[in-house]
Amino acid sequence: MSLTIKNNIDELATFGGAPLFDGLIHVGRPNLPEREALIRRINEVLDNRWLTNKGPFVLELEKRIANYLGVKHCITICNGTIALEIIIKALKLKGEVICPSFTFIATAHALQWLCLRPVFCDIDPRTHNLDPKQVEKLITQKTSGIVGVHLWGRPCAIEELTALANKHQLKLFFDAAHAFGATHGGRMIGGFGEAEVFSFHATKMFNTFEGGAITTNNDDLAARCRLLKNFGFKDYDLVLFPGTNGKMSEIHAAMGLGMMDSLDHIIKENKKHYRTYQHILKEQDGLRIVSYAETEQSNFQYVVVEIDEGVTMLSRDQLVELFFTENILARRYFYPGCHRMEPYASDPTQDTDLLKQTDRISQRTLCLPTGTSLTTEDVEKIGRLLIFLIKNGKSILEKLQTSIQLI
Questions:
Q1: Residue 148 has what DSSP assignment?
Q2: Staple 107 to which of 103, 112, 283, 324, CB 3.0 to 4.6 Å?
Q3: How many CB atoms lie within 10 A of CB 101?
Q4: What integer is the mean pLDDT of 110-125?
Q5: Weakest-pLDDT range from 65-74, 83-92, 392-401
Q6: Tens digit of each residue's pLDDT (9 = 90 or more) over 284-299
Q7: How confident is the model over 229-277, as pLDDT tens digits?
Q8: Can you give the pLDDT at residue 301?
Q9: pLDDT band per the 50, 70, 90 thresholds, residue 350
Q10: Full-model pTM
Q11: pLDDT in tens, 217-242
């Protein structure tokens, strides 16, 4: 099907034309499970009057996730940030921990919150994940751990980071917030490193309204995480050490169970939308769509493109503004990088000269809407609009500059 998006640049909404979409099109609009099944589970929660504290739905969800990921332990948590904080405490990290700056701020904040110093490491521009060669340069006597982030659901250089951690006797865990349902070497993400941490926030491909989980094959570590998420209680009135309240409620677990039932459908829709974008965008100069390994299983949660302003004439930020006027809320993940946010930007010990690729990529990446709330026609409209904007980049830029001069 061939869709006519705009005939000329005067029809763009930024120049007074009608927006391409009547309503707002979001990146990360929540996927939903089958509604009647969810309501039945919620009614069961209410009938049982068991709302939290290791309820039956929480236990069932932990078992199903562990089986799905092929790991020994799944500890559900109230959200992904608290899950990060709990695993940091459980691993007894101290001093400095190496992590990427090209990630959501929660990765760094969890370390800072617990009085550790995040040491930001540059990324491999091909993968957008930690560059192991740069990681090794940052290891000092103060380093206690490494946090790898499976950005866009694409696995880190797991073997290289594991070898580094073993060589320097460091703890290694992974922020797998994007990677639920993805594989590495044919194995599900979830069982690598000391542990892996998932976010089940509403914007994630798999959500529990709000939530997260820690997965591990380490029995002792799992036991510590379970204690830490429940105030340090081992028994009814026996507290072993200071913990926090990181428990997931039964209502959130009910949502998670519904999402597990819908998981295959959601991934199938994501993949279909990704293939549609890929087909439309693959031959456009100045634009590279971030790809997923054909030999691995992916969740296709993110459709990410890199913009080369030297070719497109329009910057990534100008494209975002043009999309917004068309009611397409495309996002510039992960801009401007954690190292350029507070309190890290004011830290004189952070060497931003070591983060050149992070700065470069954060200026180029654009996330496009996807998910079950969109139709194939919606995706085609968005993809073809992006092509139209790039092909007419010079004329649009000139008209934008003229408009500014007239103000």
A1: E
A2: 103
A3: 28
A4: 97
A5: 392-401
A6: 999 999 999 999 999 9
A7: 999 999 888 999 999 999 999 999 999 999 999 999 999 999 999 999 9
A8: 96
A9: confident
A10: 0.95
A11: 999 999 999 999 999 999 888 999 99
Do the Cβ atoms of 390 and 325 come closer than 8 Å?
no
User: How much is the pLDDT for 1?
Assistant: 43
Selection from 117, 180, 178 nearest residue 144 by Cα: 117
What token pair was written down for 133? 């060669």
Query: Measured between alpha carbons, how far is 5 from 382 in angstroms, rounded to an integer?
Result: 9
pLDDT reading at 311 higher than 50: yes
Measuring CA to CA, how many Å separate 9 from each of 21, 43, 48, 144?
16, 53, 59, 54
Instruction: State the fold for domain 35-258.
Output: Aspartate Aminotransferase; domain 2 (3.40.640)
Domain 9-30+263-406 class in CATH: alpha beta
- CB within 8 A of 220, min separation 6: which ones? none
Q: What does 44-84 look like in DSSP terms, one character per residue?
A: HHHHHT--SSS-HHHHHHHHHHHHHHT-SEEEEES-HHHHH
Distance CA 96, CA 46 (A): 45
CB 217 within 8 A of CB 225: no
Which SS3 state, helix, strand or coil, does residue 384 take?
Answer: helix
Rounded Cα distance, 254 and 102, in Å: 33
Residue 300 Rama label (left phi>0; alpha psi -120 to 50; beta): left
Sorted by where each begins, the domain ranges of the chain are 9-30+263-406, 35-258
What is the residue type of 278?
Q
Q: What share of the chain is helix, strand, coil (3-state, %, to 5)?
A: 45, 15, 40
Helix (H, G, I), strand (E, B) or coil at 282: coil
Structure tokens, 267? 């991934």
DSSP, residue by residue, 154-188: ----HHHHHHHHHHHT-EEEEE-TT-TT-EETTEE
Q: Please say whether the beta carbons of 204 and 152 come within 8 A.
A: no
Average pLDDT rounded to a whole number, residues 182-192: 98
Cα–Cα distances (Å) from 376 to 153, 270, 287, in that order, read 22, 10, 21
DSSP 11: G
Would you state the structure tokens that stand for residue 47, as one six-digit string? Answer: 């009938």
